[in-house]
Amino acid sequence: MAFRVVKINNRCKLETQLGYLVCRSDKETKILLNEIELLIIENQQVCITSALISELMNHKIRVIFCDNTHQPQGEVSPYNSCYDTYGKIKQQIAWEETTKSFLWNQIVRQKIHNQSFVLRIKEKFSEANTLEKYEHEVQNGDIQNREGLAAKLYFSSLFGDKFDRRKKNDKTNIYLNYGYSILLSMVNREIASSGYLNQLGVHHIGEQNPFNLGCDFMEPFRPFVDKIVIDSKLTDDNYKSEFIKLLSINISCNNQTTLLDNAIHNFVLDCLAFLNRYDNHDIIKIKFLDEQL
After folding, report:
1. Does residue 237 have a pLDDT over 80?
2. How far apart are the two ends of the chain, measured CA to CA in Å?
3. Domain limits at 112?
């Protein structure tokens, strides 16, 4: 099973040889393609062969390219990731609005629940209690926007009243967005490999967003990125390396300890199954591991 996140931040040539990714610079480094889960190319002076790109697609390895500020700019994913894509897309188009609304209720409640746990870790008990109140007030489709109210209180409690998620040049936002981009890429991988269109979301409907469904399914996992930002002493030099470790942390998935990467796989598949079954059962629960101790 693929488990490595590979980050390329120096000028080099990337090619493939006998099932390996080969990185040629001052020295030669080889990594077995079967071990790679995600490839992040940060340096714009990296040269990559078309043969390697083809092999990366064959192994269903997602590739993230970064801009000249070293921030994620776009990603490449394979076309042929599922044999019955046509049937899956027909199912997706037929998803009922009531089912999508009920699923979004559960996704938002899990996100707010995990946010309140982060606040308790930081001893923001009053604010955490307010978020728990919001969690139980979420209606189908979150028509009262409890997610937005929770986010406003959550971020101001963690980072101060002047913190604004819209300020892209703010260092905290740079750290958060980098972590979120890794999460989104892994969710996108699971959606694509299952044969569904990422553009057609359950709640997110941005016409210029190619990852609406991924943005829906990643929501309960965002607080795990937030916790890294508030717990770690992140700097411009180390924050990317710190987030490489994100997918290998242990979390609780339906009260079972598992790697975050495996939890993403299970959660996405369960959400898709839920949307296709048209019944109002509970989806699997994503929580911090410490909560079940």
Report:
1. yes
2. 29
3. 85-292
